[in-house]
Amino acid sequence: MVTRILLLGGTGDALKIARRLGSNDVYSLAGLGRIAEDLPCQVRVGGFGGADGLARNLAAERIGLIVDATHPYAAQISANAALAARLAGIQCWALRRAPWRPRPGDDWRFVSGWDALCIQLNPFARPFFTLGREPLSHLDTIPAHQYWTVRCLDAHPGNERARVIGARGPFTLEGEHALFEQCRFDVVISKNSGGAATEAKLDVARERGLPVLMLERPPLPDVDRTFDTTDALLAALETLRAENDARMIPPGSRRSEA
Ligand code: NAP
């Protein structure tokens, strides 16, 4: 039987993979962002109800392979995927995007979480948050000497101490130059997401000699196969598809290879 794939997504990389899936495969999204309407595969939206719920879904939908292409900081769904695959007796493959590495001239300071971040942030006045929505729940506690700029997917009115920019990458070097010039940031706060789409802010921070407070990556589970690029993962899916096709050809109709 052809292996039915469940792709866990919510990233640009996952969308690229979804565009190469078959009509029987399923692309799953948490439901926080935009949903493409022109995909060749089936699309489902919303949580599964933990690892147990995901394992039940795998059995009910006769999924033969999970592909985890979620964001490197989406640690819960990655843990659920690995456990559910084990419970269901199927393989879990994962795209593990390589982290960014500091280059000469970079001043990166690694922080483990929000509390550590606030301590490191104290000497600065004009931070630029590129962490997603987490800063939005702290807008009422901004110290009097700081003015925050928060860039995330959500539109939000901000307040007298914070401006929220609702925007989706990729972000260009030119656009980041203009934003840094306009806002006069003195520090950048980032996840170590890796990839090209949101890297330009780090180039501009380096050029301007600005420190970057980098949130450490969460630990992710071991899985059956990992890939560090979408191309490598797509090539493995192509091989799997060829193996599936070969299994579908009745033995009597195979050409002799002698
Ligand atoms: P998370 O903490 O790892 O997951 C929280 C819960 O959301 C999961 O337990 C699961 O609910 C549900 N979920 C997450 N991804 C899902 C998917 N692809 N399909 C179905 N359910 C999903 O994740 P998060 O950090 O909140 O991120 C949510 C989504 O946004 C992820 O899909 C991720 O790829 C994307 N994203 C995250 C970031 C980031 O910085 N965290 C950045 C860009 C994009 P149940 O337990 O009910 O199944």
Describe the fold and architecture.
With 258 residues, the protein is an alpha/beta fold. Helix 1 links the parallel strand 1 and strand 2. It contains 7 helices and 12 strands. The radius of gyration is 22 Å and the shape is elongated. The model has no long low-confidence stretch (mean pLDDT 94). The protein folds into 2 domains: 125 residues, 3-Layer(aba) Sandwich (Rossmann fold); 108 residues, Rossmann fold (3-Layer(aba) Sandwich). The strands form 2 sheets. It has a 6-stranded parallel sheet, with helices on both faces. It has a 6-stranded parallel sheet with strand order 6-11-10-7-8-9, sandwiched between helices. Helix 2 packs across helix 3 and helix 5 packs across helix 6. Bound molecules: NADP nicotinamide-adenine-dinucleotide phosphate (NAP). NADP nicotinamide-adenine-dinucleotide phosphate binds next to strand 2, helix 2 and helix 3.
